[in-house]
Specification:
The chain is of the alpha/beta class. It folds into three domains: 114 residues, no CATH class; 274 residues, P-loop containing nucleotide triphosphate hydrolases (Rossmann fold, 3-Layer(aba) Sandwich); 112 residues, Helicase, Ruva Protein, domain 3. 46% of the residues lie in helices and 15% in strands. A nine-stranded mixed sheet has the order 5-6-4-7-8-3-9-12-13, with helices on both faces. It has a two-stranded antiparallel ribbon with strand order 1-2. Helix 2 packs across helix 4. The protein starts with a helix and ends with a helix.
Length: 544
């Protein structure tokens, strides 16, 4: 009785999973080898359907048939044992239990399942295994961008392989500890890194022979953006970062005028003032005096840049001045920023032989994000002028990318920097973040230029839908059931293929493992590659 209770529990709780398991056996080509085993199951299935159909009442039939077989076996056994034929008894026992087992399977597996093959015509998406990743050069071949682990092996895009990468995941999902830090340790070149925690400097800078640390938290290296202005385009880059104009703004005049005044001022004083001193001058000087000073300049570019506002009405100048002061006041009064911009210990060209760390706390990111973006933009401009596949490889690792000021130069460079041996790593929490900063059209451009992704999780709808579509579809067998009411309820089953997502959108909200998208290779389910779980990396960082 206990045995039958156990069978009933298994039947109602595990039936569908057993169905799937046996269909997989069939798919792997093992079905033919198991035909002998499942022959009685087919026979039992036929008998059950002939009597009652495929319903829970099949249990009754199973009990009856199995009892008859056991009884038959017992009678034969007694008869044979009376004649001393123990070998024959064992044969009968084997056959009887074989048939009983077969009829037991009818409760769990529809015999028609073995006749349905998945063609893949409606989708062939699947997860890559370790062997495939190894064959494509992603496992311990060359160190580079660390994506995750599989079977204990680090999965990484080699340093000299082309392709930008996006790391998506919410706070505390492991983006820094399992991707960014291991990548800095493994990268076979130089790089510029944004350190927001901050912890990258503490854990990795001592491993880089040549490095500069620019900190907005304490006085370390200096960098004056004005000292590295070479063309008018450079000052225009700065003004659009500091005074961004939203696409939805109906009257951008005051923003545009603020851009013109700052551009003219920066060009005029680029060799005379630091960035911090320029901000202080613009915030403390009467707007009419500023315009007059710039208009009287002997520099043709200064005159050209200020000409758009030289004849502006006084009352309008007041609104423009408010725009300038609201943006630049924080730079004008901040003592640490005055120190940081008082000189230049390094330049964009320094990236050829050095690592550059931009250290900033998360709570000051909204305040100083514009200044950090100025530096990044200047480095991007320099990198875009490198020779084709120039050595060394350069890594631009931009943590919390959407929270920085809008950088059009970077977006423009995503599609071309790869040919200059520059790889960009954009780290963000969601596509919604990028949409808010750049708009949907530009977000699409950004995503199209990221050839690799690691997704730790995605909680917003746009991210979930995007990555689900990117993962692709697989072909799945669906069983349909029809029932004819009457005595001994008869049921018929039909099977068809349908296309279903490899990963449903909602599944990205709570991923058990990160999902990696590998350009022209496929999609893989990986383990997180935490640096503190890797003996070699842990030794490098901690020195043990």
């Amino acid at each position: 009785m206990i045995l039958w209770i156990i069978i009933l529990v298994i039947y109602f709780s595990r039936k569908e999973k057993w169905d799937i398991k046996f269909k997989k056996i069939r798919k792997k080509g093992k079905g033919k080898a198991l035909k002998i085993l499942f022959f009685p199951q087919r026979v039992g299935g036929f008998i059950v359907r002939a009597i009652l159909g495929r319903t829970p009442f099949s249990m009754v039939v199973f009990f009856i048939l199995s009892s008859l077989i056991v009884s038959f076996w017992w009678l034969v056994k007694v008869s044979l044992q009376s004649k001393g034929l123990d070998t024959a008894t064992n044969i009968i026992r084997m056959i009887s239990w074989h048939n009983t087992l077969g009829m037991f399977f009818v409760l769990f597996v529809d015999y028609q399942d073995y006749d349905v093959e998945i063609t893949g015509a409606l989708g062939k998406a699947k997860f890559l295994d370790g062997k495939t990743l190894d064959e494509n050069g992603f496992i311990d071949k060359q160190k580079g961008l660390v994506l995750g682990k599989i079977n204990g092996n680090i999965v990484q895009r080699p340093t000299h392989k082309d392709g930008n990468i996006g790391i998506c995941g919410g706070s505390r999902t492991g983006k820094t500890a399992s991707n960014l830090i291991p990548t800095i340790l493994n990268w076979q070149g130089k790089g510029l890194v944004i350190d927001i925690k901050p912890e990258l400097v503490k854990k990795t800078s001592h491993l880089k022979k040549n490095n500069f640390v620019l900190s907005l938290n304490e006085q370390k290296a200096k960098y004056n953006p004005l000292a590295h202005l070479k063309t008018v385009r450079d000052v225009l880059d700065m003004s659009t970062i500091l005074f961004p104009i939203d696409e939805n703004v109906k009257e951008p005049y005051f923003k545009q005028s603020a851009q013109n005044i700052f551009s003219a001022s920066a060009w005029e004083f680029k060799n005379k003032k630091s960035f911090g001193k320029l901000c202080k001058w613009l915030c403390s000087t009467d707007i009419q005096t500023i315009v007059t000073t710039l208009s009287d300049s002997t520099n043709d570019n200064t005159k050209m840049l200020i000409s758009a506002v030289s004849n502006i009405k006084l009352e309008q100048l007041g609104s423009i001045m408010n725009e300038i002061r609201n943006t630049l006041l924080v730079y004008a009064v901040d003592e640490n920023l005055q120190y940081v911009t008082s000189g230049s210990d390094f330049s964009p060209e320094s990236i050829e032989n050095n690592w550059v760390y931009l250290e900033i706390t998360e709570d000051t990111l909204s305040v100083y994000g514009g200044f950090i973006s100025l530096i990044i933009t200047q480095f991007v401009r320099y990198c875009s002028k490198r020779q084709e596949y120039q050595e060394p490889p350069i890594l631009l690792a931009l943590d919390e990318f959407p929270r920085l000021a809008k950088m059009d130069v970077l977006i423009e460079g995503l599609g071309t920097l790869g040919s200059r041996n520059v790889t960009t790593m954009l780290i963000f929490q969601s596509l919604a973040q990028i949409d808010k900063k750049y708009g949907k059209d530009t977000t699409k451009i950004i995503m199209d230029n990221l050839l690799y992704f690691v997704v730790h999780n995605a909680t917003d709808t746009s991210s979930q839908e995007y990555f689900s579509r990117k993962a692709g579809n697989k072909t799945e067998i669906v069983k349909n059931q029809s029932r004819k009411e009457g005595i001994g309820t008869d049921q018929n089953f039909s099977y068809n293929q349908q296309s279903v997502p490899l990963i449903r959108p909602e599944e990205f909200a709570n991923l058990k493992k990160p999902i990696a998208f590998l350009y022209q290779v496929g999609i893989a389910e990986l383990d997180k590659s935490f640096w503190f779980e890797n003996t070699e990396m842990k030794k490098l960082i901690l020195g043990d």
